[in-house]
Amino acid sequence: MVASEIDSLRQELAALRHELDDLRLNLPDAFVEGDLASDRVTFMNRVACQVFRCTPEQVATLHARDICGDGEYERAQREMREMLERGYAEGGGVYKRSGHQDLREFVMRRRDGTTFPAETQSSIMLDVTGRAHGVRTLVRDITARKEMEARLEEASVRDPLTGCFNRRHLDRKRAELEEPSAHWTCLLFDLVDFKTVNDTYGHDEGDRVLQAFAHFLSRHHRSDDILVRLGGDEFALFIRAHSHEEGQAISKRVVEAAARDSPAAFSLGTAFRQPGERVSGLLSRADQVLYASKGLSLRPKRRRPESTHGEKPGPS
After folding, report:
1. What are 37-55's pLDDT values in tens digits?
2. Is residue 278 part of a domain?
3. Could you tell me the pTM of the whole model?
4. pLDDT of residue 296
5. pLDDT value for 222
6. Of 232, 228, 235, 231, which Cα lies nearest the Cα of 170?
7. At 37, which CATH number?
8. CATH label of the domain that carries residue 243
9. Do 33 and 41 contact (CB within 8 A), yes or no?
10. 281 and 166 in a common domain
11. How far apart are CA 261 and CA 241, in angstroms?
12. Residue 162: how many other CB atoms lie within 10 Å
């Protein structure tokens, strides 16, 4: 091969290296390279430096542990070992890439110590013999996505009218509520003559009554209690109580508060969870007590000034 051909090939190789370096540096995603033997970070592109809030000069000082959230470095190590073992097994001694998109989620740590949820996609770097020596990883900050997922999750377990939890949330909490050591008192509320309110004043006013009653209940329970709108004008409040007497005392306080400022008359049924009792059984017993109390409505002793219902049943 003549000297001119060699020079031409060298120029082509240099151009390819420049193009590759430019691609790595300017990828629109955070791009990180690391050494498998030392677990040190060897390269971050511009976006990665922005995401991890470090300078290019600081990259060489970073260990993989430095960019992982608590416990995530150990998990990443385990998953990397599994990936390598699988790749070598499939390749018969040399590493064989799976060809599948391998998306994982980790909590990553920025250089300033703050953390963020990330979606990662990694590819193994191989030497000329087919042995793994490094890893290339795309890192995407998914904070906005996680926040949206949390909002959607919260909306899925909330009653849109009153803000109370709904039956779906109750189903998800069932295992906790039915633990052998769980002690709960269930307070079951049913608004008195609520249909008359809807028929007389319209559904918009009925909605306002439900919202006001839910607000009243929310002011009279603790943060770890569970307030559920079961449907229509029926609400259930699950209160942690270690004894029947404690549950009765809590129920008494709610009744006393209702006499002062409940926005609507209601019937009340209470039941303290028996050993091994399921949520359905607890609700059923509270409902039996409520049914027995029909006609014995609990009303505020004085009319709220903003009430528009006159002498009609419902809010008073």
Report:
1. 999 999 999 999 999 999 9
2. yes
3. 0.69
4. 52
5. 83
6. 228
7. 3.30.450.20
8. 3.30.70.270
9. yes
10. yes
11. 24
12. 20
Q: Which residue has the tokens 């970073």?
A: 62
Q: Which residue shows structure tokens 């391998």? A: 102
**79-to-76, 82, 102 alpha-carbon distances in Å:** 5, 5, 11
Asked if residues 67 and 52 have their Cβ atoms less than 8 Å apart, the reply is yes
The full 3-state SS of the chain, as one line of letters, equals CCHHHHHHHHHHHHHHHHHHHHHHHHCCCEEEEEECCCCEEEEECHHHHHHHCCCHHHHCCCEHHHHECCCHHHHHHHHHHHHHHHHHHHHCCCCCCCCCCCEEEEEEECCCCCEEEEEEEEEEEECCCCCEEEEEEEEEECHHHHHHHHHHHHHHCECCCCCCECHHHHHHCHHHHCCCCCCEEEEEEEECCHHHHHHHHCHHHHHHHHHHHHHHHHCCCCCCCEEEEEECCEEEEEEECCCHHHHHHHHHHHHHHHHHHCCCCEEEEEEECCCCCCHHHHHHHHHHHHHHCCCCCECCCCCCCCCCCCCCCCCC
Residues 238, 107: Cα–Cα separation, whole Å = 34
pLDDT-flagged residues of the chain (< 70): 1, 293-316
For 91, what's the count of Cα atoms within 13 Å in the CB-facing half-sphere? 18
Question: How far is residue 47's CA from residue 29's CA, in Å, rounded to a whole number?
Answer: 6
Tokens 């019937």 found at: 267
Residue linked to tokens 């998800």: 172
CA distance 94 to 97: 10
Specify whether the CB–CB gap between 212 and 315 falls below 8 A: yes
- Tell whether 51 and 22 lie within a shared domain: yes
